[in-house]
Amino acid sequence: MYRINGMEDHIHILSDLHPSVALADYIKDIKVSSSKWMKASGYFPDFKGWGIKYCALTYSYKERDNLIHYIKNQQEHHKTESFRDEISRLFKEHGIDMDEKWFWVDE
User: Fold this and answer.
1) CA distance linking residue 41 with residue 47, whole number of Å
2) Could you tell me if 47 and 39 are in contact, meaning their C-beta atoms sit under 8 angstroms apart?
3) From CA 26, how far away is CA 29, in angstroms rounded?
4) For residue 52, is it within any domain?
5) For the chain, what is the domain count?
6) How many whole angstroms separate alpha carbon 106 and alpha carbon 94?
C-alpha cells in the first residue's frame, strides 16, 4: 500500500514496509528517485533538493482509514496547525523527548 500527498514544505507518505527493508534505505530511494524526476521533468523549477532529515512514524492498522483521510486532507489541516507544531504535539502526546536542535534546521 502506498499513499502520498504533499505540502509546500513537506510530504506525508503512508506505506507498508517489509521488515527486510531498512527504513533509511527506503527513504533514500524515494528521495533520490523523486529528486531526479522533479529536476528532469521541469514541473518543479524551484525544487533544489530534499532536506537531509525525515520523520517516520508507525501506525496501528486499525487507524489506517483515519490516517488516509488525514493525508488526503492535510492541506486543510495545516491551515490551522503548522507541520512543526503538529510534530511537537504528536511527540508530546506520546511521551517522546524531542531535541529541538537536532530536529529542526535553523531557519
Assistant:
1) 11
2) yes
3) 5
4) no
5) 1
6) 25
* pTM for the predicted model, two decimal places: 0.68
Q: How far apart, in whole angstroms, are the C-alpha atoms of residue 37 and residue 50?
A: 12
**CA 71 and chain centroid, separation:** 10
DSSP 28-74: HHHHHHHHHHHHHHSS-TT-----S--------GGGHHHHHHHHHTH
Whole domain around residue 32: which residue ranges? Answer: 2-47+57-103
Whether residue 4 is predicted with pLDDT greater than 50 in this model: the reply is no
Q: Which residue has the cell 528521495?
A: 31
Model confidence pLDDT, tens digit, residues 17-58: 899 999 999 999 999 999 999 899 988 888 888 887 788 888
